[in-house]
Amino acid sequence: MEATPQFLGRNMYGLEDYSADEIMYILEASKAMKEINLRQYKKIPTLRGKTVCTLFIEDSTRTRMSFELAAKRLSADVVSFAASISSLQKGESLQDTIYTLGAMGIDLYCIRHSSPGSPQLVHKYSQKPVINGGDGRHAHPTQALLDIFSIWEHVGNLKGLKVTIVGDILNSRVVRSNLIGMKKLGMDVTICGPRTLMPPNMDKLFGCRVQYELREALRDADIVMGLRMQFERMTEGLFPSLEEYSKHYALTQETIKFAKSDALIMHPGPMNRGIEILPEIADSKQSIIVEQVANGVAVRMALMFLILGGKL
Amino acid sequence: MTTLIKNGNVYLNGKFQTRDILIKKEKIQKIARHLPEKADRVIDASGKHIFPGFVDLHVHLRDPGQTYKEDIVSGTRAAAHGGFTSLCAMPNTDPVVDNIATVDYIQRRAKDLGSAKVYVIGAMTKKSEGLEISEMATMKSGGIVAVSDDGGCVQNAKLMLNCIRYATNFGLPLVVHAEDYNLAGKGQIHGGKVSSRLGLTGLPSLAEEVIVSRDIMLAENNDARLHIAHISTARSIEMVRQARERGAKISSEVTPHHLILTEEACLSFDTNTKMKPPLRTEEDRLACLEALRDGTIDCIATDHASHADFEKVREFDHAPFGIIGLETAFSALYHHLVKPGLLSLERLAEALTDAPARVLDLPPAMLKAGLPADLTIIDLEQQTHFSPENILSKSKNTPWLDQKLWGKVLYTFLDGRITWEDPDAQIS
Predict the structure, then answer these.
(1) Chain A CB within 8 Å of residue B68 CB
(2) How large is the ipTM?
(3) Which domain CATH number covers A35?
(4) Pairing relation of β-strands B404-414 and B417-421?
(5) Last residue of a domain, one of B358, B388, B405
């Protein structure tokens, strides 16, 4: 497998910039990468001499580790920059941070930031390719790619698959990226959550179905994805109690019956067991939640490989 | 000193007519089809358009206190560059203009060093905190033309009612920035399709509309003069229309950006598309345009709000709200609305001159013998390039940065003296 020129030096801000064929090509590359991850010696020399910077302006240990492992397994040098937005506000601006890092010779940035659009800013300041590792509530394309990859591995043909995503849609970048990617690949997506956590116009914007009633939303689903319910939404007056939320929107043995009997269960993590998903569902044999994490490394390897132009 | 401007298309009595204008000292002496007089300075304005100096009811001069963004000198120079000769300075400076000393400072400094006439709008509440009525009457004796808490909005309806009664008592109009803080929340852009798409927190139209509705009721009940600043939604406009039909003394202004751009512009994450009120939907934009055409909206105001690069060029949700507008207003409106036939040049001229002057009882902004020679000469056949070097404001935060737009201000005259002269313009 070889990195084709069409990916070279490109940014991954979001899946809207990639065609269905290109997304499928990334999945193919991810498959090759996954094979490397299963070897005894999990390393190939393809990105030797390249430097990847993980720039995390919002906490996320898991995603950062996944990006770092991906880069290391391709033999790139990795530097990490972690800062909180508050420290960035007091001291150096994002612009100055990028100028400083750029002077050290970075070839690719992987950024996580609470502000939508910040990957574009990083590219503007650095003129280097940028992979978006999550920008506010806007996009999280590598998560969507790993979700789609995980489904593809299990089911094969993606076209026409019925996917139901349940939870805090308003605050979810994972949903937005998945909606774009899944739609491009011909999947049929329903999103579900209380109306206070549902942004307006989602159906028109993303060509999905919007449901406020969980059982209706789950009916005949091939794939069921739960989303993390964040406690702070309660103090924002968006719902009254976790108990009430759970009663209406949790994935339980009773509610999951409305989906197909062999439906795959997914969750981008970290999970609140007992709130949006019950342990018996999270740990059931239909659950591929742990696989998703493993696939995350493979997908991120594939992207770095394609963007920086490696050879296998 | 006399100046003779020959053969211009002069905006007179609502129409453009070929005329000569003779300026003597600070006043217009004569306007006629053909003036044989000799003058110290002669400008051939053949093929050019001559407007009364533009009037902007809504400018943030940032002086005192934030002069790294703008000051009275740079702000009024920017005004002159855009064809403006009169502007109203909003009170959200540091300190806030809630006292006669600050009113006095701005007026003196503008008089001594400014390139435009500056009228001061005083704060409606002390420090614009929305808690206690400001010393409106004292400030009125010092020359303020209206009161406003612009940038913020009095949330307490009872206090607003008192502001309305008190201001009216002293003959002061009230200028309202309509925004309900709870509905607005931490909103970044219009609450609609683009905010849903980008995951940016939305500023819903309702945040504006509930205050417009409230303040129209409060003002109408007290026969007060209320001016809605930067109106931006179709429903706000509808409420203003109905109130005016009932005879209420409600006026409003619209900005060039709300007439030209929509929320779609925010898809670029360009922070120069971030302002309050936010860029709305195409439906709202068309409603603004229609209301400007039919006179429901009285006038155009820029809401010129400078911010330094280090503040504005950054992550979208950490950048401050606001864009500059004095220099781009005419060209942007001419280029995007008049040239394509969506707005008449006559209505644009009116909405930038005498219409705003009438809203706040400023001196008439028209070309007439005996009036101050405040005017601007514009070439519609030339483009202006809004490069950072060509922008005179201290800040460059405009969505039209680096664009070339039709319409070029060749000269601006203030009280008979030239405050802006394009480098390519030629005086004979």
Answers:
(1) no
(2) 0.90
(3) 3.40.50.1370
(4) antiparallel
(5) B358
